[in-house]
Amino acid sequence: MDTEPTYQRDDADALDRIELPAPGTVRRGMLRFSHPMLADWAWPYTVVRGAVDGPRLALMSGVHPAEYPAIEANIRFTRRLDPGRLRGSLVSLPIVDVPAFLSRTPFVCPLDNKNPNRGFPGDPDGTFSDVMDDAIFRAVIAPADHLIDLHGGDLVEALVPFTIYSVTGNEAIDTVSAAMARVFGLPYVVPIRPQPGAIGGTSVQAAAAVGIPAITPEAGGNGLLTEPETGMMLDGVSNVLRHLGMLDGAVSETATPIEIDRFTWLTSPHEGMWYPTVGVGEAVGPGQVVGRVANLFGDTLAEITAPGGGDVLFLTSSPAMREGGILLGLGERPGS
Fold this sequence. Notes:
- The protein folds into two domains: 14-258, Aminopeptidase (3-Layer(aba) Sandwich); 260-332, CATH 2.40.50.100.
- It is 21% helix and 29% strand.
- It is built from six helices and 19 strands.
- It has helices at residues 68-80, 98-101, 128-141, 171-184, 203-209, 227-243; strands spanning 14-15, 25-32, 43-49, 52-60, 87-93, 146-149, 157-159, 162-166, 188-192, 214-218, 258-259, 262-267, 272-276, 283-284, 289-294, 300-305, 310-316, 320-321, 326-332.
- The strands form three sheets. It has a ten-stranded mixed β-sheet with strand order 1-2-3-5-4-6-10-8-9-11, sandwiched between helices.
- The model has no long low-confidence stretch (mean pLDDT 96).
């Protein structure tokens, strides 16, 4: 268990925006928002301000609040970070979807049944998740020079560790985001490009669109707090801060990541029971059967085949499946 940090603290709550404390100090408190829809909620935040000026980095987690290695790594890294060793500032928000955390609600906010990582940069005139995304984007992401939004497999997801970044067409921003993704050190690097059927509204897409290099590392799964994946996240955040010149020391050497060319999500044509026949990290070929969906009598409704070759980066580990629900994600390597 960590001992109580001895760094100088200047604790204060915040309203709508997060002010930096004096150089060389730490500030912890609760972030609240004046929007009436958010008035009954509060978000724990920490700012570590280095003794020397430098970049401002936002470190978020808990957009999906059952992704526990991501949350634990954020808490642990921020708690241990010595402001005397830091150049610049780190602003930590360990839980984004606060209403979903204690209820252990996977993927979506229970107040409006929306996935917060499909709504950034948010909408102050929308439902709760839209308003929350807008408030957090303004308070945490927009003031930052860089964003790391830690994720992982939720309660019903298994995955192989990988890091996502958004391709915007702005070469300067895309280059920095890609470099952050590579030095984070997870086995796969996955660029998200505009394409039919691609996801949208993620924190990293919204950040990159306004000129903030950003990455989403993913590790862990199935609602478990696991030490190896937490350690991967801790090492990765340290590497990025060294890469950005915010911490002294060389970036730790890691294996060269596998670069993914296209990220394809397979969805279910029916509701029922999902029976995958592949595992995470497994390579599959075009047209290969990767599982089947059956009804509650056991009749096969559909065999699911891979549209192209690739590696299984994540899959839904729960049998219960809605029509249109996500089955798995395939990462296609260049030339596959």
